[in-house]
Amino acid sequence: MAKKSKKQQEALKLVDRSKAYEIKEAVELVKQTAKANFDETVEAAFRLGVDPKKADQQLRGAMVLPHGTGKTQRVLVFAKGDKAKEAENAGADYVGEQDLINKINQGWFDFDVVVATPDMMAEVGKLGRVLGPKGLMPNPKTGTVTFEVEKAVQEIKAGKVEYRVDKSSNVHVPIGKVSFDADKLIENFEAITDTLVKAKPQAAKGIYMRNASVASTMGPGIKVDVSSFVR
Question: What DSSP designation does 51 have?
Answer without folding.
Answer: -
